[in-house]
Amino acid sequence: MSPKKPVGPITLAVANQKGGVAKTTSVASIGAALAELGHRVLLVDLDPQACLTFSLGIDPEDLETSVHHVLTQGVDPAEVIIATEDGVDVLPATIELARAEADLLTRTGREHVIKGALEGLADDLGDEAYDWVLLDCPPSLGVLTVAALTAADGVLVPLQCETLSHRGVGQLLDTVHDVRRFTNRGLEVWGVLPTLYDGRTNHARTVLETISETYDLEVVEPPIPKTIKFAEAPAAGRSILATSRTSKGAQAYREVAENLVARASRPKAKKARKR
Ligand code: ADP
Ligand code: MG
After folding, report:
1. Which of 167, 190, 224, 251 has a Cα at 20 to 30 A from 211?
2. What number does the ligand 1 atom closest to the CA of 51 have?
3. Domains of the chain
Protein backbone atom coordinates (compact mmCIF):
# COMPACT_ATOMS: atom_id res chain seq x y z
CA MET A 1 0.00 0.00 0.00
CA SER A 2 1.32 3.41 -0.80
CA PRO A 3 1.95 5.79 2.11
CA LYS A 4 -0.80 8.19 3.01
CA LYS A 5 -1.02 11.42 1.08
CA PRO A 6 -0.57 14.66 2.98
CA VAL A 7 -3.58 16.89 3.52
CA GLY A 8 -3.40 19.84 1.14
CA PRO A 9 -0.23 20.94 -0.54
CA ILE A 10 2.96 20.60 1.46
CA THR A 11 5.47 23.12 0.20
CA LEU A 12 9.14 22.29 0.72
CA ALA A 13 11.97 24.65 -0.13
CA VAL A 14 15.17 22.85 -1.07
CA ALA A 15 17.78 25.41 -0.19
CA ASN A 16 21.49 25.87 0.31
CA GLN A 17 23.32 28.91 -0.99
CA LYS A 18 26.23 26.71 -1.95
CA GLY A 19 26.10 25.53 -5.56
CA GLY A 20 26.70 21.92 -6.57
CA VAL A 21 25.27 20.29 -3.43
CA ALA A 22 22.52 18.49 -5.41
CA LYS A 23 19.57 20.80 -4.74
CA THR A 24 18.27 20.45 -8.29
CA THR A 25 19.01 16.73 -8.47
CA SER A 26 17.18 16.22 -5.18
CA VAL A 27 14.13 18.22 -6.28
CA ALA A 28 13.88 16.27 -9.56
CA SER A 29 14.48 12.87 -7.92
CA ILE A 30 12.30 13.34 -4.83
CA GLY A 31 9.59 14.76 -7.08
CA ALA A 32 9.72 11.72 -9.36
CA ALA A 33 9.70 9.41 -6.32
CA LEU A 34 6.64 11.13 -4.84
CA ALA A 35 4.92 10.86 -8.22
CA GLU A 36 5.70 7.11 -8.24
CA LEU A 37 3.86 6.91 -4.93
CA GLY A 38 0.84 8.41 -6.62
CA HIS A 39 1.19 11.93 -5.25
CA ARG A 40 0.47 15.01 -7.33
CA VAL A 41 3.70 17.00 -7.52
CA LEU A 42 4.66 20.46 -8.72
CA LEU A 43 8.32 21.41 -9.03
CA VAL A 44 9.19 25.10 -9.18
CA ASP A 45 12.46 26.16 -10.81
CA LEU A 46 13.72 29.27 -9.03
CA ASP A 47 17.22 29.27 -10.47
CA PRO A 48 17.90 31.49 -13.52
CA GLN A 49 20.31 28.79 -14.71
CA ALA A 50 17.13 26.74 -15.31
CA CYS A 51 18.93 23.44 -14.66
CA LEU A 52 15.79 21.83 -13.23
CA THR A 53 13.74 22.88 -16.26
CA PHE A 54 16.39 21.54 -18.60
CA SER A 55 16.84 18.30 -16.67
CA LEU A 56 13.12 17.59 -17.11
CA GLY A 57 13.51 17.64 -20.87
CA ILE A 58 12.37 21.21 -21.48
CA ASP A 59 14.50 23.67 -23.39
CA PRO A 60 14.09 27.04 -21.62
CA GLU A 61 14.75 28.80 -24.91
CA ASP A 62 11.51 27.39 -26.34
CA LEU A 63 9.40 28.99 -23.61
CA GLU A 64 7.43 32.18 -24.02
CA THR A 65 6.37 32.41 -20.40
CA SER A 66 8.05 31.15 -17.28
CA VAL A 67 8.11 31.53 -13.52
CA HIS A 68 9.56 35.00 -14.08
CA HIS A 69 6.23 36.18 -15.53
CA VAL A 70 4.33 34.63 -12.65
CA LEU A 71 6.45 36.39 -10.05
CA THR A 72 6.91 39.79 -11.64
CA GLN A 73 3.80 40.22 -13.81
CA GLY A 74 1.19 38.21 -11.96
CA VAL A 75 0.67 35.72 -14.82
CA ASP A 76 -1.49 32.77 -13.70
CA PRO A 77 0.89 29.84 -12.91
CA ALA A 78 -1.60 27.41 -14.49
CA GLU A 79 -0.80 29.04 -17.85
CA VAL A 80 2.90 28.35 -17.43
CA ILE A 81 3.00 24.91 -15.79
CA ILE A 82 4.16 22.02 -17.99
CA ALA A 83 3.55 18.29 -17.43
CA THR A 84 6.66 16.11 -17.78
CA GLU A 85 7.42 12.49 -18.57
CA ASP A 86 8.56 11.95 -15.00
CA GLY A 87 4.98 12.30 -13.84
CA VAL A 88 5.57 15.66 -12.19
CA ASP A 89 4.50 19.12 -13.31
CA VAL A 90 7.03 21.94 -13.48
CA LEU A 91 6.82 25.69 -13.28
CA PRO A 92 9.83 26.33 -15.51
CA ALA A 93 12.50 29.02 -15.36
CA THR A 94 14.44 30.81 -18.04
CA ILE A 95 17.44 33.10 -17.87
CA GLU A 96 14.96 35.99 -17.58
CA LEU A 97 14.59 35.03 -13.95
CA ALA A 98 17.98 36.63 -13.39
CA ARG A 99 16.15 39.94 -13.66
CA ALA A 100 13.47 39.00 -11.15
CA GLU A 101 15.77 39.63 -8.22
CA ALA A 102 16.26 43.24 -9.33
CA ASP A 103 12.64 43.68 -10.48
CA LEU A 104 11.31 42.52 -7.13
CA LEU A 105 13.75 44.44 -4.99
CA THR A 106 11.69 47.62 -4.95
CA ARG A 107 8.30 45.89 -4.76
CA THR A 108 6.20 45.93 -1.64
CA GLY A 109 5.39 42.41 -0.50
CA ARG A 110 8.13 40.84 -2.62
CA GLU A 111 8.74 38.16 0.01
CA HIS A 112 5.19 36.95 -0.57
CA VAL A 113 5.14 36.62 -4.37
CA ILE A 114 5.69 32.86 -4.45
CA LYS A 115 3.32 32.23 -1.57
CA GLY A 116 0.63 34.32 -3.25
CA ALA A 117 1.01 32.57 -6.59
CA LEU A 118 0.88 29.09 -5.01
CA GLU A 119 -2.12 29.90 -2.85
CA GLY A 120 -4.01 31.22 -5.86
CA LEU A 121 -3.11 28.06 -7.77
CA ALA A 122 -4.28 25.78 -4.93
CA ASP A 123 -7.58 27.68 -4.72
CA ASP A 124 -8.13 27.39 -8.47
CA LEU A 125 -7.32 23.67 -8.51
CA GLY A 126 -9.54 22.85 -5.52
CA ASP A 127 -9.70 19.07 -5.05
CA GLU A 128 -7.14 18.68 -7.82
CA ALA A 129 -4.53 20.68 -5.92
CA TYR A 130 -0.99 19.37 -5.69
CA ASP A 131 -0.01 17.20 -2.75
CA TRP A 132 3.55 18.50 -2.84
CA VAL A 133 5.23 21.63 -4.15
CA LEU A 134 9.03 21.46 -4.20
CA LEU A 135 10.93 24.73 -4.64
CA ASP A 136 14.38 24.47 -6.23
CA CYS A 137 16.19 27.49 -4.78
CA PRO A 138 19.04 29.35 -6.48
CA PRO A 139 22.53 29.28 -4.95
CA SER A 140 22.13 32.52 -3.00
CA LEU A 141 20.24 33.92 -0.03
CA GLY A 142 18.63 36.67 -2.09
CA VAL A 143 15.04 37.73 -2.73
CA LEU A 144 14.03 34.49 -4.47
CA THR A 145 15.28 32.23 -1.69
CA VAL A 146 13.63 34.40 0.96
CA ALA A 147 10.39 34.33 -1.03
CA ALA A 148 10.68 30.54 -1.32
CA LEU A 149 11.19 30.20 2.45
CA THR A 150 8.22 32.50 2.99
CA ALA A 151 6.03 30.21 0.87
CA ALA A 152 7.28 26.99 2.45
CA ASP A 153 6.03 24.75 5.22
CA GLY A 154 9.48 23.25 5.55
CA VAL A 155 13.03 23.58 4.34
CA LEU A 156 15.29 20.74 3.34
CA VAL A 157 19.02 21.43 3.18
CA PRO A 158 21.05 19.20 0.85
CA LEU A 159 24.57 19.02 2.15
CA GLN A 160 27.70 17.56 0.72
CA CYS A 161 29.57 16.07 3.62
CA GLU A 162 32.91 17.79 3.24
CA THR A 163 34.96 19.48 5.88
CA LEU A 164 34.08 23.01 4.86
CA SER A 165 30.54 22.42 3.69
CA HIS A 166 28.97 23.49 6.96
CA ARG A 167 30.32 27.02 6.87
CA GLY A 168 27.24 28.25 5.01
CA VAL A 169 24.73 26.34 7.12
CA GLY A 170 24.78 28.88 9.94
CA GLN A 171 24.07 31.70 7.50
CA LEU A 172 21.20 29.78 5.94
CA LEU A 173 19.75 29.11 9.39
CA ASP A 174 20.06 32.82 10.23
CA THR A 175 17.97 33.55 7.13
CA VAL A 176 15.42 30.91 8.19
CA HIS A 177 15.30 32.59 11.59
CA ASP A 178 14.62 36.00 10.00
CA VAL A 179 11.93 34.54 7.77
CA ARG A 180 10.26 33.07 10.86
CA ARG A 181 10.35 36.43 12.59
CA PHE A 182 9.08 38.54 9.71
CA THR A 183 7.25 36.60 7.03
CA ASN A 184 6.51 32.96 7.90
CA ARG A 185 6.20 31.94 11.53
CA GLY A 186 5.33 28.37 10.65
CA LEU A 187 8.51 27.56 8.71
CA GLU A 188 10.09 24.35 9.95
CA VAL A 189 13.53 22.99 9.20
CA TRP A 190 12.89 19.42 8.08
CA GLY A 191 16.57 18.64 8.20
CA VAL A 192 19.73 18.16 6.22
CA LEU A 193 19.88 15.66 3.39
CA PRO A 194 23.39 14.25 2.97
CA THR A 195 24.19 14.17 -0.74
CA LEU A 196 27.15 13.05 -2.87
CA TYR A 197 27.82 10.78 0.08
CA ASP A 198 30.80 8.51 0.15
CA GLY A 199 29.93 6.15 2.98
CA ARG A 200 33.20 4.26 2.59
CA THR A 201 35.01 7.04 4.37
CA ASN A 202 34.64 7.72 8.08
CA HIS A 203 35.23 11.31 7.17
CA ALA A 204 31.80 11.84 5.58
CA ARG A 205 30.08 10.30 8.58
CA THR A 206 32.04 12.43 11.03
CA VAL A 207 31.29 15.64 9.15
CA LEU A 208 27.61 14.75 9.04
CA GLU A 209 27.48 14.08 12.78
CA THR A 210 29.34 17.31 13.54
CA ILE A 211 26.94 19.38 11.44
CA SER A 212 23.83 17.78 12.82
CA GLU A 213 25.06 18.28 16.42
CA THR A 214 26.43 21.80 15.94
CA TYR A 215 23.19 23.13 14.49
CA ASP A 216 20.77 20.75 16.21
CA LEU A 217 19.43 19.55 12.88
CA GLU A 218 17.66 16.34 11.99
CA VAL A 219 19.24 14.22 9.30
CA VAL A 220 16.88 13.05 6.58
CA GLU A 221 17.77 9.44 5.79
CA PRO A 222 19.18 7.71 3.88
CA PRO A 223 22.25 9.58 2.59
CA ILE A 224 22.32 9.82 -1.21
CA PRO A 225 25.36 7.92 -2.48
CA LYS A 226 27.77 9.53 -4.88
CA THR A 227 27.39 7.74 -8.20
CA ILE A 228 28.24 8.47 -11.79
CA LYS A 229 24.66 7.56 -12.80
CA PHE A 230 23.52 11.06 -11.82
CA ALA A 231 25.60 12.61 -14.54
CA GLU A 232 23.58 10.81 -17.24
CA ALA A 233 20.05 11.73 -16.16
CA PRO A 234 19.76 15.46 -16.98
CA ALA A 235 20.94 14.99 -20.56
CA ALA A 236 18.20 12.40 -21.04
CA GLY A 237 15.61 14.87 -19.77
CA ARG A 238 14.51 12.43 -17.08
CA SER A 239 15.33 11.92 -13.43
CA ILE A 240 17.61 9.13 -12.26
CA LEU A 241 14.51 7.20 -11.22
CA ALA A 242 13.75 6.70 -14.91
CA THR A 243 17.25 6.50 -16.39
CA SER A 244 18.64 4.14 -13.79
CA ARG A 245 15.61 2.63 -12.10
CA THR A 246 17.30 0.19 -9.76
CA SER A 247 20.47 2.13 -9.00
CA LYS A 248 21.40 2.83 -5.39
CA GLY A 249 20.90 6.54 -6.00
CA ALA A 250 17.36 6.10 -7.29
CA GLN A 251 16.55 3.74 -4.44
CA ALA A 252 17.92 6.19 -1.87
CA TYR A 253 15.73 9.00 -3.21
CA ARG A 254 12.68 6.68 -3.08
CA GLU A 255 13.38 6.02 0.61
CA VAL A 256 13.87 9.73 1.27
CA ALA A 257 10.52 10.44 -0.38
CA GLU A 258 8.82 7.84 1.82
CA ASN A 259 10.39 9.40 4.90
CA LEU A 260 9.20 12.84 3.83
CA VAL A 261 5.67 11.52 3.43
CA ALA A 262 5.90 10.11 6.96
CA ARG A 263 7.29 13.42 8.20
CA ALA A 264 4.40 15.29 6.57
CA SER A 265 1.87 13.47 8.70
CA ARG A 266 3.73 14.28 11.90
CA PRO A 267 1.87 16.90 13.99
CA LYS A 268 3.46 20.35 13.90
CA ALA A 269 5.64 21.37 16.81
CA LYS A 270 3.51 23.61 19.04
CA LYS A 271 6.17 26.17 19.70
CA ALA A 272 8.76 27.13 17.13
CA ARG A 273 12.09 25.78 18.24
CA LYS A 274 14.96 28.12 18.83
CA ARG A 275 16.40 27.65 15.37
P1 ADP B 1 22.81 22.31 -7.14
O2 ADP B 1 21.40 22.41 -7.65
O3 ADP B 1 22.87 22.32 -5.64
O4 ADP B 1 23.73 23.32 -7.74
P5 ADP B 1 22.96 19.91 -8.77
O6 ADP B 1 21.77 19.10 -8.40
O7 ADP B 1 22.89 20.69 -10.03
O8 ADP B 1 23.37 20.86 -7.56
O9 ADP B 1 24.19 18.91 -8.79
C10 ADP B 1 25.50 19.35 -9.12
C11 ADP B 1 26.20 18.26 -9.93
O12 ADP B 1 26.38 17.11 -9.13
C13 ADP B 1 25.43 17.84 -11.15
O14 ADP B 1 26.32 17.65 -12.20
C15 ADP B 1 24.80 16.51 -10.73
O16 ADP B 1 24.58 15.66 -11.84
C17 ADP B 1 25.83 15.96 -9.78
N18 ADP B 1 25.26 15.09 -8.75
C19 ADP B 1 24.18 15.33 -7.97
N20 ADP B 1 23.96 14.34 -7.11
C21 ADP B 1 24.93 13.41 -7.33
C22 ADP B 1 25.28 12.14 -6.76
N23 ADP B 1 24.56 11.61 -5.76
N24 ADP B 1 26.35 11.49 -7.26
C25 ADP B 1 27.09 12.02 -8.26
N26 ADP B 1 26.83 13.19 -8.84
C27 ADP B 1 25.77 13.90 -8.39
MG1 MG C 1 20.50 23.88 -8.84
Report:
1. 251
2. 7
3. 10-254 (3.40.50.300)
